[in-house]
Amino acid sequence: MKDVQAYFKGFRVNEPQTYENLTIFPLFREEAPGTYYLMLDEALKKGIVTVTEVNDTGRFAELWLRNDADIPILLLDGEELAGAKQDRILNASILVPAETAMTDPKLC
């Protein structure tokens, strides 16, 4: 019970909002929770992500990505991955786990 009380201690109740026979009480957290992932551009600036070809000859449909951060990195659909033999555009959003290397066709 103490864990639940401690969790809700940081919340405040705002003015009730009513529509017809429904009333809600918005809850706001006093301290915003931390971000649990990095965006690709942040990770690139910090030098904690590497994007390269799968091998020396390269494969058009695949790239190799290494996340050296201790938190996940979020890659968004439509972002450009530059630095390999040719630049590529992501065709899906991907959350790359912390301290992971991966090859994925969605990376290009």
Tags for this model:
3-stranded antiparallel sheet; 108 residues; mainly beta; single chain
Summarize the structure.
By secondary structure, this protein is mainly β. The protein is built from 2 helices and 12 strands. The relative contact order is 0.17.
List the helices and strands and how they pair.
Blueprint: H1 2-8, E1 11-13, E2 17-19, E3 22-24, E4 27-29, E5 38-39, H2 40-46, E6 49-53, E7 63-67, E8 73-75, E9 80-81, E10 88-89, E11 94-96, E12 100-104
Parallel strand pairs: 5-8
Antiparallel strand pairs: 1-4, 2-3, 6-7, 7-12, 8-11, 9-10
General description of the model:
This protein has 108 residues and is mainly beta. The protein has 2 helices and 12 strands. A 3-stranded mixed beta sheet has the order 5-8-11. Strands 6-7-12 form a 3-stranded antiparallel beta sheet. It is elongated, with a radius of gyration of 21 Å. The model has no long low-confidence stretch (mean pLDDT 82).
How many E-type strands?
12
Mean pLDDT across the residues is 82
Helix content: 10-25%
Question: Helix and strand string, N-terminal first?
Answer: HEEEEEHEEEEEEE
Rg on CA atoms, Å: 21 Å
How far apart the termini lie comes to: 48 Å
Question: What general form does the structure show?
Answer: elongated
